[in-house]
Write a structure and sequence with these properties.
It is a single chain. It is built from one helix and 18 strands. With about 250 residues, it is mainly beta.
C-alpha cells in the first residue's frame, strides 16, 4: 500500500472542543475518545490552534520528526509525524514514553506555539472508525477478501475479518524504531474480540505491515444465525475496553 494511502487511513478530521486551560488536546488517533489515555507507539491526534501551518502528509517511511517546519515533542522527545495542519496534527507517541502525565509541545520553525499534557498508559486500545457521521460508527474493517466492509460489501458468518486499531503499546514480539514499520511483529498479549454478544476467535494480533503504529487484529465471525445486519464490535486488551464500532454481516 502506498504511503499516502496508509496515511489517509490514519487521518480523520474530527475537531474536539479544547479545555480552556489546555491549548493542546491529545486523543487516541483511532477512537478520538476524549480524556482517554494514549499508549507508547500508538497513533495520536493533537488538536489546537497551531498558527499558519501548511497542511502536509509524510511522504515516506520512516516518518519524519519535522514536517512543514512542525514538530511535536513528548517529554522533550521528537515524535514521528503523519500529518500536520493549523488545527490538527497526527503523530506517533514515542515508544520510550513512560506511563503517567506527559508534557506535549508543538513547535513551528523551532518556536513553541502550543503546549499541554496527555495521559499515557502501557496500552490504550482504540478502534478506527470509518465514518464518524454514520450513526452506526462503522469500523475500519476489511472482509476476508480484503474489501472494505460496508452494507454493499457485507462480511459472512464464519469468515475472518481484519480490524484496524491502535494503542497496542510496546509489549511486542520485537522492538520497532520510532516512525518505522513493524512487519511480522505481534503483540505478546492476546486481545479479546466481541462481535455482537459472542467472543470471536482471534487469529492474528500485531502491527499492520502497511502503516506505522497501526494495529491489525484478525478475528473470525462466529457462525451464529442472529449475527446479521449491522453488528457491534468491541475489543478488550490488557483489561481495557475499546470504543465500539460496527460491522455489516450478510443476512
Amino acid at each position: 500500500m502506498k504511503t499516502r494511502a496508509c496515511a489517509a487511513l490514519l487521518l480523520v478530521v474530527w475537531i474536539l472542543p479544547l479545555a480552556a486551560q489546555n491549548p493542546v488536546a491529545v486523543v487516541n488517533g483511532a477512537s478520538f475518545t476524549a480524556k482517554f489515555p494514549v499508549a507508547p507507539g500508538s497513533v495520536a491526534s493533537a488538536f489546537g490552534d497551531f498558527g499558519n501551518v501548511t497542511e502536509g502528509w509524510a511522504a515516506a517511511i520512516p516518518l519524519p520528526p519535522v514536517l512543514n517546519q512542525v514538530e511535536v515533542k513528548v517529554n522533550g522527545v521528537a515524535s514521528p509525524l503523519y500529518y500536520v495542519s493549523g488545527l490538527q496534527i497526527n503523530f506517533q507517541v514515542p515508544q520510550a514514553t513512560i506511563a503517567g502525565r506527559a508534557n506535549v509541545e508543538v513547535l513551528v520553525s523551532g518556536a513553541v506555539v502550543a503546549a499541554g499534557k496527555m495521559d499515557v498508559l502501557p496500552a490504550g486500545p482504540g478502534l478506527f472508525v470509518a465514518d464518524f457521521n454514520s450513526p452506526n460508527l462503522p469500523g475500519a474493517i476489511l472482509n476476508q477478501d480484503n474489501s472494505p466492509n460496508s452494507a454493499a460489501q457485507p462480511a459472512k458468518r464464519g469468515e475472518a475479518i481484519q480490524i484496524f486499531a491502535t494503542g497496542q503499546g510496546t509489549d511486542l514480539s520485537s522492538g520497532v524504531p520510532d516512525g518505522d514499520l513493524g512487519i511480522g511483529v505481534t503483540t505478546n498479549a492476546q486481545p479479546e474480540v466481541y462481535i455482537s454478544v459472542d467472543e470471536a476467535a482471534v487469529e492474528y494480533s500485531g502491527l499492520a505491515p502497511c502503516c506505522v503504529g497501526l494495529w491489525q487484529i484478525n478475528a473470525r465471525i462466529p457462525d451464529k444465525s442472529y449475527i446479521s445486519g449491522a453488528i457491534p464490535v468491541q475489543v478488550v486488551f490488557e483489561g481495557i475496553f475499546t470504543n465500539t464500532v460496527s460491522i455489516v454481516v450478510e443476512q
